[in-house]
Amino acid sequence: MDWRRMLVVVSGVCALVVVSGCAREKALVKAEVATVEVEVAKAKATVTDATKIALDSEGPLGIETVGEWPDGLGGEDLGSGCKFALKGAGECKFIWRPLLPKAGQYRVSVWFGGDPNSDHATDSPFTVYYDGGQTTSKVDQTKSSGGWKVLGAYPFKAGKSGYVELTNKANGNVVADGVQFEFVR
Fold it and tell me: Is 65 helix (H, G, I), strand (E, B) or coil?
C-alpha cells in the first residue's frame, strides 16, 4: 500500500510528515488510517442492511451535475429544497448514483415538488441506467408529486454502476429533487 497516496486522501498535513520520514509520525499516521478503515467498514455495514436508498439533490453523496443547476423551492420538496435547470438541448445533466449494497431488482422512484411558476416540463426525461440497459421515462412535472413516483423496477449490480440521469432536453424547466432505489428481490 502506498501510504503517501493514502494519506493525501486522509490528511494533507500527515502526508507531509510521512514524506519527511519521521518514524514516530509514521506510526501515528498508520493509526489514523486504521481508524478511517474502521469507520468505512462501519458505514458499509449500515448500508448493507438498507432496503431503500434515497438520494436528495441537496445532499453531497451520490450526486453529480453537469451545467447550471440553481437552487429552487417548489413546495413539498424532499428535504430543504431542490435544483432546477432551464429548458435546453440536454446540456444540463443531474445524476443520482447510489452505492447499492447488493445486486438485484430495485424499484426506482422520483420525487419533486410543486410548480409555483407554471414553467415545469411535461416531458422531463429521467433515464435509468441499469445492468443490461437503459430506459427513459417522460415525467410530467407540472403536477406536484409530493411523494414517490415509480419509474419502474430494474436489475442492478452491487456498487455504483447504475444510476438515474435527468437532462434539460424538455419542453420546460426540469426539477431535480429525490430519487429512491428500493430493493425488491
Answer: strand
